[in-house]
């Protein structure tokens, strides 16, 4: 893909996407999402295709901007755990591996995991007797970690780099990848070109239909990284367009840290003997509308908590500069004028600016008296412990979320 950035403005131009599945330009608006201070994008429109019903983020930068982002800002290296995934992630990989083994896929299959991060899923398959295992990931650090931890060879690159040099595989897996891609159909084309004639494809994505029973920060699914919102039907449609049929399907709830959950739908696909007809996805649009309403409802409390924290023009310090903070700033729930400084434990963020304020390392908090607002759902308690137990800071600490623990 050729980049066509202007000489002065390095930001890629935003364009309408046609439907990533059926190609239709007709769309219905569900929600406009905005971010302040994201290195990747300033927001997008969540829309659904008026033809096939698939929901996706419209008005986003081109694929090349996402490729750059994942090469440089990968969160999937799990650096703070020495490259090892959490026990929760290991559990979901085990359940997905159970599904793959139950579906009768031979452990002798030449297997490629696209977007494999540090190779944990491949490692789980190795423990089930799979021997011919390969990984592909855009982050060079992930390849090093996979070799060190699991002795699994991971090639650095994106799904769009896949070509003849990579050989062919009996099983290609993409777990938690398709929801991040701008050019979904091109990605599918690259993958199916690398499959042996009887090869199978395993795809797993967040399941829009079950968002109502999941737990996380409001609007978390509309993060800076998620730009496609699949249902089982739209996933099936994507593969139908490529001439593939679904032979098995699974649904599960992925446990994340601190009681957060994300619904996952997975499917196993193979080349179809005859044309597979698309089915209109009539439910995704309404499911996302319900999700928006529930998120807006949760935001009302967030607005009150922030207003209380900065009552009387008090300046606060905000810990956390992720999607949540970027969204709260853009939506006006968090006013930059009320923030003295931002803090983040990620070294990559420190020294940068968000909404004109510097992002400081946690150590910079010693000796400051402002109240600290924790702006994270997933790490709220972890950050609270760090402030109170490890750093022993006397500051007043405000939590955004009143959560019930599981
Ligand atoms: Zn469509």
Write structural notes for this entry:
With 406 residues, this protein is of the alpha/beta class. It has 2 domains: 70-276 and 287-291, Rossmann fold (3-Layer(aba) Sandwich); 310-399, NAD(P)-binding Rossmann-like Domain (Rossmann fold, 3-Layer(aba) Sandwich), CATH 3.40.50.720. The chain is built from 9 helices and 17 strands. The strands form 3 sheets. The chain has a 7-stranded mixed beta sheet with strand order 6-5-4-7-8-11-10, with helices on both faces. Helix 5 links the parallel strand 7 (169-175) and strand 8. It is globular and about 70 Å long. Bound molecules: zinc ion. Zinc ion (ZN) binds next to loops.
């Amino acid at each position: 893909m050729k980049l066509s950035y202007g000489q002065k403005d390095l930001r890629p131009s935003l364009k309408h996407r046609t439907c990533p599945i059926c190609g239709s330009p007709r769309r219905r608006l569900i929600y406009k999402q905005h971010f302040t201070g994201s290195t990747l994008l300033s927001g997008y429109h969540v829309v659904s295709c008026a033809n096939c019903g698939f929901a996706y983020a419209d008005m986003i930068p081109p694929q090349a901007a996402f490729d750059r982002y994942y090469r440089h800002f990968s969160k999937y290296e799990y650096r703070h755990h020495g490259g090892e995934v959490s026990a929760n992630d290991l559990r979901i990989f085990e359940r997905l591996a159970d599904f793959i083994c139950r579906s009768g896929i031979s452990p002798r299959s030449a297997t490629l995991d696209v977007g494999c991060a540090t190779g944990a899923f491949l490692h789980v398959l190795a423990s089930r007797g799979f021997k011919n295992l390969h990984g592909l990931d855009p982050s060079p650090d992930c390849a090093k970690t996979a070799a060190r931890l699991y002795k699994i060879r991971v090639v650095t690159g994106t799904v769009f780099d896949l070509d003849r040099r990579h050989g062919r595989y009996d099983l290609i897996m993409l777990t938690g990848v398709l929801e991040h891609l701008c050019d979904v159909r091109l990605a599918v084309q690259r993958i199916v070109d690398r499959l042996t004639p009887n090869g199978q494809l395993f795809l797993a994505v967040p399941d829009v239909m079950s968002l109502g029973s999941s737990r996380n920060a409001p609007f978390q699914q509309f993060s800076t990284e998620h730009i496609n919102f699949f249902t089982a039907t739209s996933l099936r449609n994507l593969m139908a367009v490529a001439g593939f049929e679904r032979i098995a399907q699974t649904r599960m709830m992925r446990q994340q840290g601190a009681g957060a959950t994300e619904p996952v739908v997975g499917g196993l696909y193979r080349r179809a003997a005859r044309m597979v007809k698309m089915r209109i996805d009539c439910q995704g649009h309404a499911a996302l509308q319900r999700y928006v309403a529930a998120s807006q409802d949760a935001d009302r409390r967030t607005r009150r908590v922030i207003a209380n924290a900065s009552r009387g023009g008090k300046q606060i310090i905000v810990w956390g500069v992720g999607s949540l903070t970027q969204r709260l700033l853009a939506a006006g729930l968090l006013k930059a004028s009320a923030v003295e400084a931002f803090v983040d434990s990620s070294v990559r963020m420190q020294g940068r600016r968000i909404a004109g304020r510097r992002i400081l390392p946690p150590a910079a908090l010693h000796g400051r008296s402002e109240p600290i607002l924790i702006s994270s759902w997933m790490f709220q308690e972890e950050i609270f412990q760090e402030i109170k137990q490890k750093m022993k800071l006397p500051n007043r600490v405000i939590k955004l979320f009143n959560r019930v623990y599981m």
